[in-house]
Each structure stands twice: as structure tokens, then as C-alpha cells.
User: Which sequence fits this backbone?
């Protein structure tokens, strides 16, 4: 593999995944990944542009940022690209009224959305809200539509909490897709539109941007398919087999955000 | 389409699906489909061999048969091919100890199975048992195995209860497959092994047998791929679009079991 100097040359903007990179979620709000608070502070003091690109769909952007600030992270709401606000824009543009299969924690994002007489379904990481009853209700709404439309906020397979691996929204989206014989529209990583909106908001071109994430598919492959570079951190949901993934090769593997920031500050934009 | 006489010539054995053909499940045990009790009685008085081939995995075979007998059906346990007993045989043959993601109603079928220190997962139609917690537990068991093995009792998309369409095991199997990056082994329709075991038990060759079911994929396509003929009834989960399925064409579509039996008694084995 090329030297870091070559791999990171010309990087001007950094997109950061949140869960598994900054912190691990869990009971009581979760815990920062060691070194990440300081690493983010150093990165933000540098000349590199920084933006957060998350598939978090259990919490509103406000609650997510509030929680991260309490953990010590320097982050504000306007710096975060997240799927719930992006979905609301799409719903408004297309005049759609969703049935919401979502966590109560993110419901406030949809306050301005008409949910009467639904003509589509929005599925997000509902956690314990993924009861049989709630899944069946979403299924029945879709089956009653002539042209069933399903929006999935990300398609992650699982994420890591302090207590262990947890099913993410992706498996439940697959369940509804199979049950109804349809394909969901993904709003979130690895959808190219989602990465592109984060790049627009950061005002950096894809070839000058690098994604840092713990998900070899959602973060690394997704960003690379948009023309960005991508590093995988060995924290969060990282598994050693990711480094031998049959289809995806990151531009680099680093132990954690702290190592990524060390390398970026040393080699980027040279 | 050829005349019924031609389509049913040489049929000597009839495999009957249960849910959606004999009865619709639901609160209080469900209700017989009009005409099906009498149709089954007539069929059993004929010279045709009859066997039941079900993907029912919420109830034990004993409970299922008891319920059907109370609804008036002439059926005994030994006449039913069902996935839970078939799965137990496989588990014993391969020395596997399952984690069970199943409905309490079918748990007794697994009484003789060692479930300590599990090295595989069995998923059946768990109904309300498909909570996030239970799905996550099954997921975690699979992720901890070096070679994760998942048995799915059928892969039906949904079934019809008196209150409406209900998600079956298939969508939840797809969820675990996607989450773990694996493929389940299906025990039940449309697995060819399952149809073949029903044929063996009926002692009829595939080309002399006909399947009657309400599922265009699980029943009709599955049986045809085993060399059997298959009729779809317009009861249960049947939807008008099934008659224009892009890949599957039944050997005939009939309003209900009563019409199927009328035609069989008139034309079969000629």
C-alpha cells in the first residue's frame, strides 16, 4: 500500500461518522471512545474542514448533539448531516404522508409532517419499537397501497453498544422489502445522494474529502463509490475480517479516530 | 389452457396446504373456509390419497390437528407433514443444539432437543415473539458462531388471519440473513426436500401428485419445481395479481377447496 503521504495528499475536508467513531452508544447514553474527544478538538483546530455524516435515526439531531456535547465533543447541530431531516425534505418535495415506524426519540423531527391517511412508510432505527405489532402495521399499510413506497433511514446491519452488537434498521427494511416484494429508497449512508449532500454542506469536492467510519460497507464503500477516500477505524462495529473484505478495501485502517487525526494532520493537504 | 381432464389426468395423490385452504387463522382459533370441511370429507372418501403439507410453525402438530378437528375437519396427526418435526430430525442427525426463536405454542415439539450452549439458531413463525429483544438475541448468538447456521421453518412472506394479513417467518429470516451475511437453510415449503418427504409419506410419485395451496410461490412454484402439479385456491392469502405472476403459472386456479375437489373427483386418475 502507498505511503500515508500519498494516500492522504490533497485532502481538504473530513466527514466523520459518529457512532463507533466518536462514541459507543449504550445504557446511560454511552461512552466516548478513548482519545476521540481530544482528536476531534485537534482536527477542528486544523485547517481541514470537518462535518459529521451519521445514519443515527433513533435520536433527533438536537438530542444527538446534546448528548455528544455532554460527553465532551465539540459539535453543533448545523455540522451534522442526518437522515431524518433529509427524509422530511423528500416527503415535502413529493407530497408524501408517511406512516412512521420510528423511535420516539426521533419523532420530533417529523413534527411538521402530515401523517394522516398515509401513502408511504418511513422506517428508521426503532430499537425496541420493532415489535411484531409495529412491523405488521407498517406491512399492512404498504400492502394496502397501489404503489407502495418505503423510505429506509440508512440500511445498516448492526451497530455496537456498550452491551454488545445491536440490530440496526437494515434488517427490518429487508424484512418489509421481502414481505411486500418491493425495494426501499435509502436515505442515509451508503446512498450517494446522502454523501453528496454532506459534501455540498461542507463545500468540498469528493476527491478532496475523506470519510472516517467504522462500517466497511456503509461508510467506506459508500464514500469510495462517491469518489471520496475512506479510512476504517478499528473501533465500534469494526471486526478483524473487515480488513479482508472480499469487495471493499479502505484507503487505510487505523486503530481509532486519534490515529486517523494524527495521520491527517501530518499528511493531508500536502 | 388445456381442459381439466387433461390437466388432472393420472393424479393419484393430493397434498393439501392447511392455512388459507382449510381455514383462516385468527382470534379464537380461526374459521373454516366455507365448503372446505365437506370438501375434505368427500376427498377422503374417494380413491385419491390425501396428505397435508403445512408450514405451520406456531403450533405443535398435535395442537394444530386438535384445532382443525374442533372445526370439523377429518384429519389426524400422522397425516401431516410439518416443519418442526422435520427440523428436529435434522438437528439430531447433525448433532446441533439450537437457540430457538419460536412461538411458545410449538415449543413442545423441541422437548427432546438439547438447547444448551447453542451452535445454531432455529427461527419459526414466532408471532408476537418477534420482539426486538428476541430478534437481537438470535442475531447475537449467530454472530458469536464461527460458522453460523440458521434454520428457517418455511420462508412464507405473510399469511391471512381473519383480522388481516400477518407477517410470517420469511421476512424475519431475511432480516437475520442480512444482519449476519448468511443464508438460512429452509425446512418447509418451498424446499424440495420437504415436498419429497411428504410425497414419500403419501407413497405417491411426484408426477402423480397435485398440491393445492393459497401461496403462488411457497405452494405452487415449490410443488411444480419438484415435478408435481399445483392448483392455487382463491382463498387465504390469494391475491388477484397472483394469476398474472411473472414467473409462476399454476396448473389451475379454483375458487376454493370445494371447487378443487369437484374437479379432482371428476377428472383425476382417468
Assistant:
Amino acid at each position: 500500500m502507498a505511503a500515508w503521504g500519498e494516500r492522504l495528499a490533497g485532502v481538504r475536508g473530513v466527514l466523520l461518522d459518529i457512532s463507533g467513531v466518536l462514541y459507543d452508544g449504550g445504557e446511560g447514553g454511552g461512552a466516548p471512545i478513548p482519545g476521540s474527544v481530544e482528536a476531534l478538538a485537534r482536527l477542528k483546530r486544523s485547517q481541514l474542514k470537518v462535518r459529521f455524516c451519521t445514519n443515527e435515526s433513533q435520536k433527533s439531531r438536537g438530542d444527538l448533539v446534546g448528548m455528544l456535547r455532554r460527553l465532551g465533543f465539540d459539535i453543533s447541530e448545523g455540522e451534522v448531516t442526518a437522515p431524518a431531516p433529509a427524509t422530511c425534505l423528500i416527503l415535502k418535495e413529493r407530497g408524501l404522508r408517511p406512516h412512521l415506524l420510528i423511535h420516539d426519540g426521533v419523532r420530533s423531527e417529523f413534527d411538521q409532517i402530515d401523517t394522516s391517511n398515509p401513502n408511504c412508510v418511513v422506517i428508521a432505527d426503532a430499537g425496541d419499537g420493532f415489535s411484531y405489532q409495529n412491523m405488521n402495521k407498517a406491512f399492512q399499510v404498504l400492502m394496502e397501497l397501489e404503489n407502495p413506497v418505503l423510505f429506509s433511514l440508512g440500511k445498516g446491519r448492526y451497530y455496537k453498544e456498550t452491551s454488545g452488537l445491536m440490530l440496526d434498521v437494515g434488517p427490518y427494511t429487508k424484512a418489509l422489502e421481502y414481505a411486500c416484494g418491493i425495494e426501499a429508497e435509502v436515505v442515509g449512508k451508503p446512498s450517494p445522494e446522502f454523501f453528496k449532500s454532506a459534501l455540498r454542506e461542507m463545500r468540498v469536492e469528493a476527491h478532496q474529502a475523506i470519510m472516517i467510519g467504522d462500517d466497511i460497507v456503509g461508510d467506506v464503500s459508500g464514500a469510495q463509490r462517491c469518489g471520496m477516500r475512506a479510512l476504517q477505524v478499528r473501533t465500534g462495529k469494526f471486526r478483524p475480517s473487515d480488513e479482508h473484505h472480499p469487495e471493499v478495501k479502505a484507503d487505510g485502517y487505523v486503530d481509532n479516530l486519534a490515529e486517523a487525526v494524527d495521520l491527517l494532520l501530518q499528511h493531508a493537504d500536502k
